[in-house]
Amino acid sequence: MDLKISIVTATFNRKDFLPRCLEAVASQAYPHKEHIIIDGGSTDGALQLLEEYSNRYQHIRWISEKDNGISSALNKGLAMATGDIIGVNGDDDFYEPNVFGIVAREFIENPSIGIVSGNCNRVRSDQSHAGVLRAGFTNRRELMEYWKHWCEDVMLPAPSTFFRKEVVATVGGFDEADRYAMDYHHWIKMTEKFKVKTIDQTFANFRIDEGTVSGSQGQRQLDEMYAISRKHWGSILNPDYYRLAFSYLEHHKWPPLRNRLKNSIRYRLGWLLKI
Predict the structure, then answer these.
(1) Measuring CA to CA, which residue among 220, 211, 208, 235 is closest to residue 184?
(2) Is the pTM of this model over 0.85?
(3) Which CATH superfamily is domain 5-231 in?
């Protein structure tokens, strides 16, 4: 297996979390790897830590400079990546042992596949287990219809998903306007042109507590996912546009409206009965 794997991590003032992330990549037995860390100008001692680790491990490359957010930082990392396969890992995420060899083998044995995704554990700061996000992908339509399928039939957990470098060359990097759902947007762009293979095996772990995007900005993330999904519904002359629109209304708008109508009717009936 001579495919090189590049891992890209964006970080900013996260010294306490970085060691586990760095060690999880360093401990992978797979030899053809690099870990690119894009630091946003940390002042908490993270730079000294990165200097120490890069001196210890030759596969670590890093830069520190101001950026315009996570998407901007990740795009810098994608541009620096020299691997055939790329994974994006958060500064408080960490891989399971011996994952890289499994991923490389899947790409070698399936040359038509552009994306490989495995399961991802959800963990709290105290290391307690909070469930598993199981990788699954049926079709791109269901990815866009996230309100029905996300985390059920469709799930591409960011820390446990890998893609060929040619995928980035074809669809581009992360949209720097995205703040909370940049991974979801990336999957929508990728899956328009490239096939996905999901594996029922745990590849990585990610933290869900306050301070993470998923933990503290959940509603904003969902709102951004809707805006992203809608961009890809296609022309208003396309019947599929209206199928997606009605599906969204059915799941997010009509249930609250029905509840309000029911409550209003119950209130008025109650008032009339008292009279």
Answers:
(1) 220
(2) yes
(3) Spore Coat Polysaccharide Biosynthesis Protein SpsA; Chain A (3.90.550.10)
